[in-house]
Amino acid sequence: MSIQENVPLSSLTTLRVGGRARFVAECRTKEDVQEALLYAREHSLPWSVLGEGSNVLAGDNGYQGIILLVRIPGITETAHNGAVLLSVGAGVNWDTLVRDAAARTLWGLENLAGIPGTVGAAPVQNIGAYGAEVKDTLHEVHAIDASTGKERIFTNTECAFGYRESRFKKEPNLIITSVSFLLSKDGTPQVGYKDLANALAEGVDLSSPESIGDAVRAIRTRKFPDLTQVGTAGSFFKNPTISEEAYTSLKKRYPDLPGFPNEHGVKVPLAFILDHVLNLRGYTEGNVSLFERQPLVLVTQDGATADEVDAFAHSVAERVMRATGIKIEREVRNFPS
Ligand SMILES: Cc1cc2nc3c(=O)[nH]c(=O)nc-3n(C[C@H](O)[C@H](O)[C@H](O)COP(=O)(O)OP(=O)(O)OC[C@H]3O[C@@H](n4cnc5c(N)ncnc54)[C@H](O)[C@@H]3O)c2cc1C
């Protein structure tokens, strides 16, 4: 385990804001994780975990503790009841895993191509895109329980997955060290999602995990900002689920408002509200904007601060509330939480 001191959180997070972290421990094995926890205990330091920092808003005051930067490598394949089990170190980059699975012609992860971040963070918010979620293929999660220092294993059901939710959000004492996925050698393309259905209609090859992954990456490149040019954490807010009555009433005012019924009500695309109800596409305050091509995505320019991002997000949420009565929630998590 190597420890660095006084590291800017803006260099560890894709929103590129935040003060300095007092210590950052790079953990390449689960023993490194245990050692870093021991270091924190012996020095009476608070600790926290980061992957690639693509879903967090780090505070301007920095962090006076030790950050465990999970970088555990490795992908191993084993046969499992006619399917294939890939066991993956929590520090592996998510899209590296998606490409690796596609190269082995394994189905199941291809719709999740191009999502930034690490494999270890993927179950935390049950990442999802293009009609797929990590819970669809996840077999088990291995984690170190910081309250005992011991390893625990969670089955898919025990992870308590929901829309951008899991038990790991509520139990920060669980540090994920590896995740296994049950993938199929003979899957079928899942191309019902609008952008993929359009690509299929235009003649794009969507016949293999590799070609679907490439198509998804191409769609994402058109939709999301370039991480090398601006700061962003992707979609800043969750798409809200509202009651059927609230949906019916809004639909009268905005007949084009899409709605997707689920067990809790009707999920509505927040991007539609930001764009067509509030006209906020490209809306800017100081160094923070809603991305021109996808208003659910918040972007920062050089010089932005976490306080500025926070105030901007509050102002957007307030406008949504005033116009529609909908209380929106952030997808991006405050760091430290
Ligand atoms: C351009 C862009 C597009 C995106 N598109 C999508 C999308 O389509 N779908 C989607 O779901 N998300 C999307 N995201 C969000 C992000 O990619 C995911 O949430 C990703 O899983 C975060 O991974 P990370 O390693 O960067 O996690 P971090 O941001 O480092 O951490 C996120 C949270 O998980 C915790 N955590 C991290 N690693 C571990 C671990 N090993 N054990 C326990 N807790 C841990 C952290 O403490 C933190 O609370 C996007 C982000 C960006 C920037």
Features of this protein?
alpha+beta, 26% helix, 8 helices, single chain, Uridine Diphospho-n-acetylenolpyruvylglucosamine Reductase, domain 3, 5-stranded antiparallel β-sheet, 20 strands, 3 domains, binds flavin-adenine dinucleotide, 4-stranded mixed β-sheet
Short description:
With 337 residues, the protein is α+β, with helices and mostly antiparallel strands.
Q: Can you walk through the features of this model?
A:
There is one protein chain. The chain has 337 residues and is an alpha+beta fold. It folds into three domains: 2-70, 2-Layer Sandwich (Uridine Diphospho-n-acetylenolpyruvylglucosamine Reductase, domain 2); 75-222, Uridine Diphospho-n-acetylenolpyruvylglucosamine Reductase, domain 3, CATH 3.30.465; 225-335, UDP-N-acetylenolpyruvoylglucosamine reductase, C-terminal domain (Uridine Diphospho-n-acetylenolpyruvylglucosamine Reductase, domain 1, Alpha-Beta Complex), CATH 3.90.78.10. Helix content is 26%, strand content 28%. The protein has a five-stranded antiparallel β-sheet with strand order 6-7-12-10-11. The longest helix is centred in the C-terminal third of the chain and has 19 residues, at 306-324. The two termini are 24 Å apart. The model has no long low-confidence stretch (mean pLDDT 96). Flavin-adenine dinucleotide binds at residues 14, 48-56, 70, 90, 115-118, 120-122, 124-125, 127-129, 168, 175-176, 224, 227, 232-234, 333, 337.
